[in-house]
Amino acid sequence: MKILVCISKSPDTTSKIAFTDGDSKFDENGVQYIVNPYDEWYALVRALEIKEANGGSVTIVTVGTATDDTVIRKALAIGADEAVRIDSEPTDAYFVAMQIAEYAKSNAFDMVLTGKETINYNGSQVGGMIAAGMDLPFISLASKLEVNGSTAKLETETIGGLEVVEVDLPAVISCAKGMAEQRIPNMRGIMAARTKPLNVVAPVPFESLTSFESYALPDIKSACKMIDPNNMDELVELLHQEAKVI
Amino acid sequence: MSIVVYINSNNGLAKSALEAVTYGNKLDGDVIAVTCGSADESVLSSLGDYGASKVLVDRSVNSNDSMQIANVLKTAVEATGAKTIIFSHDLIAKAVAPRLSVMLKAGLVSGAIDVPNGDTVQVNVFSGKAFGNVKISTDLKIISLLPNSFQPESGGSACPVEEFNGNAGEAKIRVIDSKKPEGDVPLPEAELVVSAGRGLKGPENWDMIEDLAVTLGAATACSRPVADIGWRPHHEHVGQTGVAIRPNLYIAAGISGAIQHLAGVNGSKVIVVVNTDEEAPFFKAADYGVVGDAFEVIPRLNEAIKKFKAAN
Ligand SMILES: Cc1cc2nc3c(=O)[nH]c(=O)nc-3n(C[C@H](O)[C@H](O)[C@H](O)COP(=O)(O)OP(=O)(O)OC[C@H]3O[C@@H](n4cnc5c(N)ncnc54)[C@H](O)[C@@H]3O)c2cc1C
Ligand SMILES: Nc1ncnc2c1ncn2[C@@H]1O[C@H](COP(=O)(O)O)[C@@H](O)[C@H]1O
User: Fold this and answer.
1) Type and span of the H or E element at A126
2) Are residues B111 and B235 in the same domain?
């Protein structure tokens, strides 16, 4: 089983969100990057479990610049065999997905796993686009994944419910909560990660279809109105008259 | 010019479907709703009330297979000459819209919260902590609308429903089993939500939360640790790594308001926080705050709402 896991970086979840250059760029000052939690906790860990049970290999791929190498090493420390960095700024989901699809097509993977979404842009786009670029089925938001020979059995979220589905491999799968338990890298993993291959490959020419022009922060909430805990009638009155939500 | 709006009609018409048609109607063009499956014609024709001029239904597709749905939409876009395709940003859109984007080479914006301003569309980014303006460079545009950003507006009349052959192709995904939605209102669609966290001490104390939810007609939610330790089902977990919701009213009891929790709920129109600790960070994000013990305040609030409902 040859598995490709798509790894992106995202700002540490406690990062202060601010913008520079006339609100056109994310302010990276003092921001710590982590492996996007969905990619790390679910996609990568499940891929490693499948490899441990069935043999094979786990490759991670990132579309990014040299500044992403620390995040890539972190993912290697969790246990991936090797990493590929497609050397380009990830300009939009389409561009990223086309790069990964081109790379994956020429390397015969049995599965391509992505996270549910990146927590910075929350697009949930890249996985479905990779599948389209490779003309493969896409199983979105899987919370369980079992492999049996050349078929995968998955549990996926549906609107308010659950579905159990089966698909012939190769396929592209986006991974959500439930898929695996978070793994903390140990010292041995961190040491080993330093010498694992990190292959930098050149991007293929593709245009982006979208671009972020500017950003804005939400208005600061006006001060919270405090209500006497013994006077819930007042709260109900405010919710009705002032907030108009009941 | 035509606008194609994808509608999931498998479980009737959800509010988010009506929002998507309403949104399409705010753009300049003829709104054509496209759906798959076996919904009744009378149900589908009611989309006309919200501004659809007709509904195209491909009855050959009976699953959520994103390849099939994307094929049907591509055929519909080509047949109608539509330049804009609208989705509601739900689980189906998250699989279908990206595929369609590649098939049509159409720029996709997901999580839109406003109508386009020229070629740019406003979206939520950083898990609701900021907004971004995304420019679509292609002529064909796909917009996936964040649920609960627009209220459905009716006022039109029933529209014709036409059978449509969308050349869906074969399903590649075999459905083995499916579990129907739990609870009455799926959490992402709920207008009122009552939520609780670790401050409730144990799963046996959730009765008062459920009672309040029943009185209000609200859905229930929880913080992540509560779902992780199994006090509550996983699908109730809201936040950065759980479900993101934008209800009209979010009541949070015994939740500290960690930034990762806020990321999933800060799109709520009104937030009420009940916490014993007046320093709890959640109060900074709240509209109304009650410093007090949830075990006393929540039952009291329930009684007050019952009284209010009886009088109104
Ligand atoms: C990468 C990452 C992702 C995360 N994603 C999420 C996420 O998606 N969703 C999420 O919720 N969390 C998430 N977390 C966890 C988050 O940081 C907090 O740890 C979590 O939200 C805290 O849950 P809580 O408020 O229920 O519990 P606590 O922090 O323990 O707070 C309990 C609160 O209850 C109050 N309290 C105690 N007794 C009472 C009483 N009798 N009446 C009223 N109030 C009382 C306390 O004052 C306290 O404020 C994430 C963390 C990380 C690192
Ligand atoms: N620059 C990138 N390099 C590699 N994988 C990525 C990149 N951006 C996104 N992904 C993958 O695509 C998933 C969905 O991302 P998004 O569409 O941005 O929400 C992520 O969870 C990653 O697995």
Assistant:
1) helix A126-134
2) no
Identify whether B171 is part of a domain: no
Dist. CA A56–CA A78, nearest whole Å: 16
Domains of chain A as residue ranges with CATH:
2-217 (3.40.50.620)
- pTM of the predicted protein model: 0.91
B125 and B263: one domain? no
Residues with CB under 6 A from ligand 1: A 13, 37; B 197-199, 223-226, 239-242, 253-256, 258, 260-261, 264, 274-277, 280, 293-295
B157 and B16 in one domain?
Answer: yes
Report the percentage of chain A scoring pLDDT > 70: 100
| Residue B143 shares a structural domain with residue B214 | no
Percent of chain B exceeding pLDDT 90 equals 84
Three-state DSSP at B302 gives: helix
What are A225's strand-pairing partners? B288
Tell me, what CATH number does B89's domain have? Answer: 3.40.50.620
Find the CATH number of the domain harbouring B302: 3.40.50.1220
Q: How many domains does chain B have?
A: 2
Contact B241 A178 (CB under 8 A): no
Q: For the segment B11-51, what is each residue's pLDDT rounded down to a tens digit?
A: 889 999 999 999 999 999 999 999 999 999 999 999 999 99
The residue of chain A with its CA nearest to that of B96 is A128
- Pair (B154, B242) in one structural domain: no
**What is the span of the domain harbouring residue B250?**
187-311
How close does chain B come to A169, measured CA to CA in Å? 10
Is A239 in contact with B124 (Cβ distance < 8 A)?
Answer: no
Residues 6+ apart with CB under 8 A from B205: B295
* Contact criterion met (CB < 8 Å) for B288 and A178: no
Of A10, A12, A13, A227, the one to substitute when testing ligand 1's pocket (max ligand atoms within 8 A of C-beta) is A13
Q: Say whether both B12 and B63 belong to one domain.
A: yes
The residue ranges of DSSP E strands in chain A, in sequence order, are: 2-6, 9-11, 19-20, 25-26, 33-35, 57-64, 82-87, 111-115, 138-148, 151-158, 161-168, 171-175, 198-201, 210-216, 225-226
